[in-house]
Design goal:
heterodimer, A: 416 residues, alpha/beta, six-stranded mixed sheet, four-stranded antiparallel sheet, B: 616 residues, alpha+beta, six-stranded antiparallel sheet, 22 strands
Chain lengths: 416, 616
């Protein structure tokens, strides 16, 4: 299980957008969460509302208890992060809000103090670890170039009556490059997260095609480090494998077919949406015609594998859970696919970072658009740069005005 | 209360205190020093012009006086967005001084005394004694010190140096010793000024000219047009010959010869600095600014220097149009001590002596406008202190003055502090054009605004409201859009005229000629509505930031909070917090290097302390 907490004036509206309807305050109820943008079903969740001021933070709070899979959490936080006025909470922010609203008593405050000290240390270590890595270096590179642009623009505004070149051409080029790099990092960060949390592989197929025996075969392989995790729902079973250093979770879906029973239909629906979210789908089929009835789309990079190799005349390209035929080859193909994706991995591994970079990039693009209008909208472009920089604060450290002034005076001979 | 010093900070402080109703005395060394423009003969600019407008919004003096003496009004950044625009004017020195003296004289009950303050006797919660050189002692409840560069001021001309404030002023050593006794952290700064030229020896016919705007933009919301004749400035530039003369004589310059250890402003470098730091630049522009209508003195802006006078003359004569120029007064550099403004609270009073206020250059700032803005804050707060009223605090989201005070008391001044619009995170809201809307309501509330200004302000607000209502009521038609040269998306959404107003490039003139309803509306009201609409999408987002800022501003930190004993803070932060003693959580957040986790920690300790009933 995982709990997603939304706090603040937009909490109810945000939860409503995800859940369709909300229960009464302080009453838990099950709701189906779906992405408001695409309508895609994300998960079934237990939803609880706490109205202001009777909540942990003292603000309106909605808690979503969802299944703890990385894919579900990613989808929920992405859907929330894309809503106007929402962003991932900063370290200790709920506690801080609770404090500001006077929601904690002395005992709690003392207890939290110790916790926070410990947490701060842990965060500090974590932050240093992350910032030593690629994200910090990348973000610093972006920041330095954005500061350069900010300085150029600040000079054009604040030293207009001096000899400052009044052309933002060079700045536009820099902004384009930074936006492009940010886009690449956002694409790559999905993979980086997978490196940490593992890739998900959904095993999809009609009933009785041999999925369970294949899963069992995988679970028994000596080369694979196996931890059997209880399934997050009774419809999906998970087996975790260490595949040449990459963590891979294989999901065994209930056999997909056109069900008539309502309970079975619901289970099938969940299995389908879960399969759609996985990083890779393996379609285990007796013949390719079975693809049509499954209700799961075949995406680029997915695999089709023929089942029951032991019962076929030619075992070419087929697998069998019963005999183990073709299993090694299949694992090698999976390892190859993920290995290739991992090679292109970005280094930002946390949702918060991705959110920050996404925001920063949007501001960079808006800044470029403003500068494209010439000097009329310089101050508006500057505002976007300021926001882009502040979005990067957490990754690269805050930029002070003095730093920008340094950049100005290093570049231009100003002053009379 | 007593204001010491009659410069820009002093005049503004005394008048503000008088407006608030305090019994006020201004002590100055000489009457002619009141309102003197001691460096360049100009007021305003980008950022600086914003401050002047804010002073005016509270009925201060600088804007009105500049309007009376302006001889070349120009709105800088005229072709850029309204938030970037700043009014500026060349000012006639004599007219400025006289207008300032007249404004003080017109303040019935505001007293001016010529004398030299040589000592202060300050004790906590006791009246202050101000001792004059003449032997008199003045008893008062608060003192505002606006003594500029008097603290160990040294003038350098080449290798010659002599102790002084500005040229011709004496520097008072006993008062300096008294400041030393307070144990305040001091720093050393330098500044420079160019030589003054005899305009009759300049060949104006060979120079480029810079003219005043056709339609002058005034500083005061109450002024309509310039009263003095408008003149042009000359434009020339340095060349390779100029540079070689200077390079050959660098050893003789006080600024470069190692005779000065103070830190100079990077935005006001000497010509020696410019040539040293940017050797690849072949020319530097020089603006020849007339110092007034009734004088031949010309201020060559761009070549402040501390070379020996003979070398100054030589390099000046290498420039086009200045081949025969004669010097009326050599350029020089001033080095002086300043008080680290982190020793002040946001009223500009010393933390160790809450009835002693400092304003202007003594706090490490540069510029007339920055000094005047501080004078206003110190004057209002000294008066509030004397009258036992609430402090008048400006915050970053409502005024450049608030940005300046907060920057100074939070992060200090490592070089002479000058205002730039880039220092304001709420730049789009803090415009020169809406300074009255931002601050006059505050002025009305505390009672420092005249009846005339109140009436004018209220009329303007009503007009703006009327324009807004009209704009919201009129349905925007494709015909409107066509006439205004705008594209209207054909998405079927019904728009009002207000929705079109934010479009880039839309001018008040276009509106007046194409929308009958706006034909008779006052153009300044329409302009306000247009400007608001232009920035509306950004202001909505900034409003959230401002709300967050206000919430953190509301969390006050006791001045005796023991940061040393606070766990979870780095040594560096503990040290910085202890020195700054932030007044609020928001201010603590602006200390360089502060982290969100550390702020939560602070809040936590604060709450724990309050709950226990001991604010430690």
């Amino acid at each position: 299980m995982a709990v997603v907490r939304i706090s603040g004036p937009s909490a109810n509206a945000a939860a409503l957008a995800l859940a369709g309807s909300l229960p009464e305050e302080r009453k838990a109820a099950v709701r189906t969460l779906s992405d408001p943008a695409t309508g895609e079903v994300i998960d079934e969740a237990l939803v609880i509302r706490f109205g202001s001021p009777r909540s942990f933070t003292g603000e309106d709070v909605v808690e979503l208890q969802v299944h703890g899979s990385p894919a579900v959490l990613r989808l929920v936080s992405e859907a929330l992060g894309e809503m106007q006025g929402l962003r991932p909470a900063m370290a200790g922010e709920f506690t801080r809000r609770a404090l500001q609203q006077g929601r904690l008593d002395l005992g709690q405050v003392e207890g939290l103090g110790d916790l926070l000290t410990a947490e701060t240390d842990a965060q500090h270590r974590q932050a240093i670890r992350q910032l030593r890595g690629g994200t910090g270096a990348l973000a610093k590179g972006w920041r330095d170039r954005l500061v350069e642009v900010a300085a150029q623009v600040a000079a054009m505004i604040d030293f207009a009556d001096e000899e400052v070149p009044q052309t933002p051409g060079a700045s536009l080029k820099i902004l384009g490059e930074v936006a492009e790099e940010m886009a690449a990092e956002i694409r790559g960060s999905r993979v980086a997260e997978r490196l940490r949390d593992g890739f998900e592989v959904a095993l999809v197929g009609p009933p009785n095609v041999g999925k369970s025996s294949l899963i069992n075969r995988l679970a028994c392989r000596e080369t694979a480090l196996v931890t059997e995790v209880p399934g997050t729902t009774r419809d999906v079973l998970e087996v975790r494998l260490d595949l040449e250093g990459l963590l891979v979770t294989v999901l065994d879906m209930a056999g997909l077919h056109a069900a008539t029973d309502r309970v079975e239909q619901l289970g099938m629906e969940r299995a389908r949406s879960r399969a759609a979210m996985a990083d890779l789908r393996i379609f285990l089929l007796e013949d390719t015609a079975q693809m049509t009835g499954l209700g799961v789309a075949f995406l680029e990079g997915d695999l089709q594998v023929l089942a029951k190799a032991d019962l076929r005349e030619s075992a070419e390209g087929a697998v069998s859970g019963t005999t183990g035929a073709g299993v090694t080859a299949l694992l090698q193909r999976i390892g190859g696919i993920f290995g290739q994706r991992a090679a292109g991995a970005g280094t930002a591994s946390r949702e918060r970072h991705r959110h920050a970079i996404t925001q920063a990039r949007a501001e960079v693009l808006e800044a470029a658009e403003a500068f494209d209008h010439g000097e009329k909208a310089l101050e508006i472009g500057a505002e976007h740069i300021r926001r882009a920089l502040s979005a990067l604060d957490e990754l690269a450290g805050a930029v002070t005005v003095d730093r920008m002034l340094d950049a100005i005076f290093a570049k231009f001979c100003l002053g009379k | 209360m007593v204001v010491v010093g009659g410069g820009h900070a002093g005049c503004e402080a005394a008048h503000a205190a008088w407006r608030l109703g305090a019994k006020t005395l201004l002590v100055t060394q000489k009457i002619e020093g009141i309102g003197a423009l001691s460096c360049n003969p100009a007021i305003g600019g980008i950022g600086k012009g914003h401050i002047v407008r804010e002073i005016d919004a509270l009925d201060g003096l600088m804007a009105r006086v500049a309007d009376r003496s302006g001889i070349q009004f120009r709105l800088l950044n005229r072709s850029k967005g309204p938030a970037s625009q700043g009014p500026r004017t060349q000012a006639d020195r004599d007219l400025y001084r006289h207008a300032m003296q007249a404004a003080l004289a017109a303040a019935t009950g505001l007293k001016v005394l010529v004398g030299e303050v040589i000592d202060l006797d300050i004790r906590a919660n006791a009246p202050v004694n101000v001792l004059l050189a003449a032997g008199t002692t003045i008893h008062c409840r608060a003192v505002v010190l606006t003594t500029g560069t008097f603290l160990r001021g040294v003038i350098h001309i080449g290798h010659e140096q002599h102790a002084a404030g500005r040229l011709g002023d004496r520097s008072s050593t006993r008062l300096a010793e008294r400041i030393d006794d307070l144990g305040l952290p001091l720093g050393r700064l330098k500044t420079g000024t160019p030589p003054r030229l005899d305009g009759r020896t300049i060949d104006w016919g060979r120079l480029g000219l810079q003219h005043a705007d056709e339609d002058a933009t005034m500083f005061s919301f109450l002024s309509e047009r310039p009263t003095a004749r408008q003149v042009a400035c000359g434009v020339t530039e340095t060349n390779e010959r100029t540079h070689s003369v200077i390079r050959a004589n660098l050893g003789a310059s006080a600024l470069c010869g190692g005779g000065i250890r103070g830190v100079g402003p990077r935005y006001c470098p000497s010509i020696e600095d410019k040539i040293l730091r940017f050797p690849e630049k072949g020319t530097h522009r020089v603006i020849l600014e007339p110092e007034g209508l009734s004088t031949d003195a010309v201020y060559p802006n761009g070549i402040s220097t501390s070379l020996p006078p003979s070398i100054q003359e030589t390099f000046i004569r290498t420039m086009e149009g200045l081949e025969n120029a004669a010097l009326l007064q050599p350029g020089y550099a001033v080095e002086y001590d300043y008080v680290d403004p982190r020793a002040l609270d946001s009223r500009l009073a010393l933390k160790v002596a809450p009835s002693l206020f400092l304003a202007g250059q003594i706090n490490g700032t540069t510029g007339y406008e920055e000094a005047a803005g501080q004078g206003l804050v110190a004057g209002l707060n000294a008066a509030a202190w004397v009258l036992e009223r609430e402090p008048v605090v400006f915050d970053r989201s409502t005024a450049y003055i608030g940005v300046m005070i907060d920057d100074l008391v939070t992060n200090g001044a490592s070089e002479p502090y000058r205002m730039f619009t880039s220092r304001a995170e709420y730049r789009l809201e803090l415009r020169a054009d809406n300074a009255d809307r931002r601050l006059t309501p505050l002025g009305l509330r505390i009672g420092v605004v005249s009846a005339r200004r109140r009436r004018s302000f209220e009329r303007k607000m009503v007009a703006i409201q009327r324009v807004k209502v009209v704009a919201q009521r009129i349905k925007a038609t494709p015909k409107h859009a066509d006439a205004l040269g705008l594209r209207m998306s054909a998405d079927g959404v019904q728009r009002t005229l207000e929705d079109l107003l934010g479009a880039e490039g839309l001018t008040v003139q276009m509106l007046a000629s194409h929308v009958p309803e706006f034909r008779d509306a006052p153009s300044e009201a329409v302009q306000q509505v247009v400007n608001d609409a232009l920035y509306a999408p950004y202001l909505a987002r900034q409003t959230l930031d401002i709300a967050r800022l206000r919430r953190d501003e509301a969390v006050e930190l006791p001045s005796d909070l023991d940061y040393e004993a606070m766990p979870g803070l780095s040594r560096e932060l503990r040290e910085k917090l202890g020195r700054v003693q932030p007044r609020t959580l928001a201010q603590a957040g602006r200390i360089e290097g502060m982290t969100p986790a550390a702020l939560t920690m602070l809040l936590l300790r604060l709450r724990a302390g309050t709950a226990l009933g001991k604010p430690r």
